[in-house]
Amino acid sequence: MIESRCGILCEECGYREEMNCKGCVNITDPFWGPCPVKACVQEKALEHCGMCSAFACALAKQFAYDEKQGDEGKRLRQCRKWCEEVKG
Ligand code: SF4
Ligand code: SF4
Q: How far apart are the CA of 37 and the centre of ligand 2, in A?
C-alpha cells in the first residue's frame, strides 16, 4: 500500500493526528498548500514517483533533500521499495 505520491510514510508523520490529515493520496487539496510533486504524479496518472520514467527527477530530489522539510532522500528510497514490493 502506497501512502503518498513522493514516498513519505504517513504513519510516521505528526500531521496525521495534529491536522487530522487523511494522507496525500486520499485528499485533493493538501492543507499545507499545493504540492508540485503530488500534482506531477497525478497528472501522469501514476501512483507514486517511483513509477515514473524520470525518477528521481530534480523536483523529487529537491523535496527529498530540502534542508528543512526533506528527509535526506528517505522518501526516494521508499518509492524504490514500493516498486520492488509490486514486482514481488
Ligand atoms: S510532499 Fe507532496 S507528494 Fe509528498 S506527501 Fe506531501 S503532498 Fe504528498
Ligand atoms: S519523479 Fe519527478 S517527474 Fe516523475 S512523477 Fe515524480 S515529480 Fe513528477
A: 6
| The pLDDT of residue 88 is above 80 | no
The sign of the torsion formed by the CA atoms of 51, 57, 63, 66 equals: positive
Establish if 1 belongs to a structural domain: no
List pLDDT tens digits, range 17-48.
Answer: 888 888 899 999 888 889 999 999 999 999 99
Q: Which helix (H) or strand (E) holds 18?
A: helix 15-18
The protein residue with its alpha carbon nearest to ligand 2, atom 6, reads 49
**What pTM was estimated for this model as a whole?**
0.92
Cell of 28: 485533493
Which atom of ligand 2 approaches the CA of 50 most closely? Answer: 1
Residues 67, 44: Cα–Cα separation, whole Å: 27
Q: Is residue 80 part of a domain?
A: yes
Overall domain count for the chain? 1
